[in-house]
Design a protein that fits this description.
InterPro entries: DUF1697. By secondary structure, the chain is of the alpha+beta class. Helices cover 28% and strands 27% of the residues. The chain folds into 2 domains: 79 residues, SP0830-like domains (Alpha-Beta Plaits, 2-Layer Sandwich), CATH 3.30.70; 84 residues, Alpha-Beta Plaits, CATH 3.30.70.1260. The strands form 2 sheets. The protein has a 4-stranded antiparallel beta sheet with strand order 2-3-1-4, sandwiched between helices. Strands 6-7-5-8 form a 4-stranded antiparallel beta sheet. The longest helix has 16 residues. The chain is globular, with a radius of gyration of 16 Å.
């Protein structure tokens, strides 16, 4: 089965620096195969068999701690999980000069539609959807400072998500599909 490991908070603002080539080796040593990294922010596509996503997360978090001395949360999603998320993103959503659109991948502990009740959503500014495994959020760039999205930073919820823009999420899925053939 093909999976994506989404690491939270690496190589951002000079903190938790991890070299992607070394991270690939860490995954391989942990028993993963067909390991592919995508950009420098902790997106690792890999294959594994006979382990649950929870077991994979635990193994990979431990391997990262052992090799890099960092406590990094790892969210693991299968190619089928990511397909459902990508299919829920409206085709018109982009991350460009006019629009900011993100996928907030949820920790399993909070992966429920009720998580929307904890958000500050501005109805005339924000478009927000829950899909199993993620919150999808889009706002016109001209309204970003007025968006409820900015209220998440520093919140308890923010510590239980890892965010990728929709362009990155779509590319991850494309790479996962190629590996799944």
């Amino acid at each position: 089965m093909v999976y994506i490991a989404l690491l939270r908070g690496i190589n951002v603002g000079g903190k938790n620096k991890i070299d992607m080539k070394m991270l690939k080796q860490t995954f391989e040593k942990a028993g993963m195969y067909d390991v592919l990294t995508y950009i420098n922010t902790g997106n690792i596509i890999f294959s594994s068999s006979e382990l649950s996503k929870m077991e994979l997360s635990r193994i990979l978090e431990e391997a990262i701690h052992n090799d890099f001395g960092l406590q990094i949360k790892v969210v693991v999603r299968s190619v089928n999980d990511v397909r459902a998320i990508i299919n829920a993103i409206p085709d018109t959503w982009k991350n460009d000069k006019d629009m900011k659109s993100d996928v907030m991948f949820l920790w399993d502990e909070i992966d429920h539609e009720s998580v929307l009740k904890t958000l500050v959503i501005k109805p005339n500014i924000d478009t927000v959807k829950y899909v199993p495994g993620a919150i999808l959020w889009s706002v016109d760039k001209k309204n970003v400072t007025k968006s409820g999205m900015t209220k998440i930073i520093g919140s308890k919820l923010y510590k239980q998500v890892t965010v990728r823009n929709v362009n990155t999420a779509r590319k991850i899925y494309e790479l996962m599909q190629a590996q799944n053939r």
